[in-house]
Amino acid sequence: MPIHELAQLTWEEARDLDRARTVVVLPVGAIEAHGPHLPLATDIVIAAAMARAGAGRLAARHPVLILPGVAYTAAGFAAKFHGTLSISGTTVTALIVDLARSLSEQGFRLLAIANAHLDPEHLTALHEAVQLARVERLVPIVFPDLTRRPWGSRLGDEFKSGACHAGQFESSIVLREHPSGVRDKIRRTLPPNPRSLSDAIKTGKRSFEEAGGPRAYFGDPAAATAEEGSKLVDALGGILEEAVMEAIA
Fold this sequence. Notes:
This protein is an alpha/beta fold. It has a five-stranded parallel beta sheet. It is about 45% helix and about 10% strand. Helix 2 links the parallel strand 2 and strand 3. It is globular, with a radius of gyration of 18 Å.
């Protein structure tokens, strides 16, 4: 089955899509601090990779349409770091629901969100969008939340530990997907930061600094490899595929 990128189609080509069978994929990321070694667009890079990998798997059964990614969202934990651009969760929810309305009007089957940005306000906003779309009977929104079971258990030990912001997990994926964006000389010198960001969130911390990440990274970026990044992207694609197929079933 074909994989299309909406931004590259003409309106007539979009009109002629088999919309009733097409799975729409929306990459969602953030512009926020990712240590001294990764670009601010790291979450966008990962979301796009997840979307492509998931689309490649889904295309065995369904046509897939990848939307231009959402690059701005709630990023309060990194708000005090230069370059981070954070908007309200309310705005994020409204944007996703409005997109679902537009896709519904055009007769698409399902909207799947590819996301690896784990700020709690952002995750809440996406879950609220899923619920509002259901209440309004819009196109179903599928959102596999990587912080919930069973998804996170498939992404390696560092991810499961919660010490996984700009660490081995994310650095490996960016090394695979966008190696020129990695400040590798800096990455190789960074000591591990084993503090669990997820544990900090549970105890009420509200910023990377409070959580023990004064340079906006958690985990072990020096241990990252592009080879691991390939495996992680494949795992993310599998998560997206499985979540979509469960929803369709």
